[in-house]
From TrEMBL, chain A:
PROSITE patterns for the chain: RIBOSOMAL_L3 (PS00474)
Protein name (record): Large ribosomal subunit protein uL3m
One term under GO cellular component: mitochondrial large ribosomal subunit
An annotated GO BP: translation
Keywords: Mitochondrion, Ribonucleoprotein, Ribosomal protein, Transit peptide
The keyword ATP-binding is annotated on this UniProt entry: no
Pfam families: Ribosomal_L3
Localization annotation: Mitochondrion
UniProt cross-references to NCBIfam families, sorted A to Z: L3_bact (TIGR03625)
Organism per entry: Irena cyanogastra (Philippine fairy-bluebird)
Stored PANTHER family: 50S RIBOSOMAL PROTEIN L3, LARGE RIBOSOMAL SUBUNIT PROTEIN UL3M
Source taxon at top rank: Eukaryota
Keyword Ribonucleoprotein found: yes
Stored SUPFAM superfamilies: Translation proteins
Automatic annotation (TrEMBL), chain B:
Signal peptide span: none
Keywords: Mitochondrion, Ribonucleoprotein, Ribosomal protein, Transit peptide
Pfam families: Ribosomal_L19 (PF01245)
InterPro entries in alphabetical order: Ribosomal_bL19 (IPR001857), Ribosomal_bL19_sf (IPR038657), Translation_prot_SH3-like_sf (IPR008991)
Compositional bias ranges of the Basic and acidic residues kind: 19-28
Region (Disordered) residue spans: 1-28
GO terms, biological process: translation
Annotated GO CC locations: mitochondrial large ribosomal subunit
Lineage: Eukaryota, Metazoa, Chordata, Craniata, Vertebrata
Protein name: Large ribosomal subunit protein bL19m
Localization: Mitochondrion
Gene: Mrpl19
Entry keyword DNA-binding: no
Similarity section: Belongs to the bacterial ribosomal protein bL19 family.
Length: 242, 246
């Protein structure tokens, strides 16, 4: 995470996400998948092929890419279908866009009710016998059962969670890095899924996105760094208020 | 001597004296700002490389001078609510923290009997000028104990003139031993964990010896805590001098 400053001098914290060897692996049509839209399977970081059996390598052999660590699905409209085997780059996103980022949260292991659900526990003194971080009562008398989904101790973390509506401040096309506002679930160097935001406020915020994606062998030549309009660039002199 | 032509020997002037100036021949002191050294961790080094590119870019446009904890600085920042739209603060640097673009330094001064500490970010675009009025080092890495010292050690004149300094002089170490206000202090500075050399402790002997109970003499032999930064510093210094020399 890094600080970033706007032209008016305000500081925002920014997370860096690196797009490492992402390729489209397979196209699944609407009828095949049984959903409302067609799906594209996309694979992430390259990983050694020797730790999985040959049967697991079929998808990657069809697309002609080395084995990827993570395969995710993206729901896609029919005009945005991409041929399997095309690499995806960070330039697919543009500064000023809003994204949702999904990742597995940091695993905390088996945790008690105070840390996992934020219960208040019991006082430290005034006669409490061996009861300081326990859940207390779990149901009422009338119910005569414990409801499903009762908050109790258990394994915490290591589940998929999404942060919605994060602004993209800057894109580095040379190293394929996306600078995303705020924090993102997961530990450092974990795998993360970045999608266009589904929030209704940001539905029309994408002005001219590269559609269906940014092709490296196309005619467009992008500069090494793409900045949002409000970012203070370090090539400018210090901020002064007139 | 036997002359070649019978004429007296030609006057040979004595060889010119070679002056070896030992002062300038001393090894150039290199100062690598502490925020460039990456902390120990599992982050990808690419992140530090990219952050360093941004820091170098900022340093090309705005001059961040060399300074240490204990030097007196004057910082002018942009302030939209001030009448002049800028704000100048003079103070002694008590602490330098943070790595990368978020590096900070805290300046302390006592203005009209009120101690004031301001934490500035080195790479913030609102800073318009950083001037080093007095460049010197102190015996400790951070001077947070000045909060519990007598106010005379933290007062600096707001209109102080910069102290002139030769380029080749070594950075002076101010070995002042600071006198403290009576206890209680904000932290127990006599304990060995802070390892403070710049305080003149006027506590009785038995209190100083009782404080040594909290010493952890095994820490200096702990090999897992060692972080050798010499090679990393060399690489970063080379990169910096290339980029800033352009």
């Amino acid at each position: 995470m890094m600080p970033i400053w706007t032209k008016s001098g305000e500081k925002h914290a920014v997370t860096l996400l690196k797009v490492q060897d992402c390729t489209v692996l397979r196209y699944v049509s609407k009828e095949e998948s049984g959903g409302k839209t067609a799906k594209l399977l996309v694979g992430g970081k390259n990983v050694s092929p020797f730790s999985k059996p040959e049967s697991a390598h079929e998808i990657f052999k069809e697309a002609g890419v080395p084995r990827k660590q993570k395969v995710t699905t993206f729901n896609v409209t029919d005009d945005a279908i991409i041929k399997p085997g095309t690499p995806l780059y960070a330039a697919h996103f543009r500064p000023g866009q809003f994204v949702d980022v999904t990742a597995k949260t940091i695993g905390k292991g088996f945790q008690g009710v105070v840390k996992r659900w934020g219960f208040k526990g019991q006082p430290a003194s005034h006669g409490q016998t061996k009861t300081h971080r326990r859940p207390g009562a779990i149901s009422t008398n009338k119910a005569s059962k414990v409801y499903r989904g009762k908050k109790m101790p258990g394994k915490m973390g290591n589940i998929y969670r999404t942060s919605f509506g994060l602004k993209v401040w800057r894109i580095n096309t040379k190293h394929d890095i996306i600078y995303v506002n705020g924090s993102v679930p997961g530990h450092t160097n974990c795998l993360v899924k970045v999608r266009d935001s589904k929030l209704p406020t940001y539905k029309d915020c994408n002005k001219n996105p590269p559609f269906p994606t940014f092709f490296a062998d196309g005619d467009e030549e992008l500069p090494e760094d793409l900045f949002d309009e409000e970012i203070f660039q370090f090539t400018d002199p210090s901020v002064t208020f007139a | 001597r036997v002359s070649s032509d019978g004429k007296p020997p030609k006057f040979q002037p004595p060889p010119k004296p070679v002056i070896i100036d030992r002062k300038t021949q001393k090894e150039e002191s290199r100062f690598l700002s502490p925020e460039f050294i990456p902390p120990r961790g599992r982050t990808d080094p690419l992140k530090y490389y990219i952050e360093r590119k941004d820091m170098i870019q900022r340093r090309k446009v705005f001059n961040i001078p060399e300074f240490y904890v204990g030097s007196v600085l004057a910082v002018t920042t942009a302030n939209p609510y001030a009448s002049d739209k800028s704000n100048r603060f003079v103070g002694i640097c008590i602490q330098r923290g943070g790595k990368g673009l978020g590096a900070t330094f805290v300046l302390r001064n006592v203005i009209e009997d009120q101690g004031v500490e301001i934490c500035y970010e080195l790479y913030s675009p609102r800073i318009q000028a950083i001037e080093v009025l007095k460049l010197e080092k102190r015996l400790d890495e951070n001077l947070l104990y000045l909060r519990d010292a007598l106010p005379e050690y933290s007062t600096f004149d707001v209109n102080m003139k910069p102290v002139p300094r030769m380029d080749h002089e070594e950075i002076p170490v101010n070995k002042v031993q600071v006198r403290m206000k009576p206890k209680p202090w904000s932290k127990r500075w006599e304990r060995p964990k802070y390892n403070i050399k710049g305080i003149k402790f006027e506590l009785p002997e038995h209190k100083m010896q009782a404080a040594q109970k909290w010493s952890q003499p095994w820490l200096e032999f702990d090999m897992l805590r060692e972080y050798d930064t010499s090679k990393i510093e060399e690489k970063i210094w080379k990169e910096l001098s290339e980029e800033l020399g352009k």
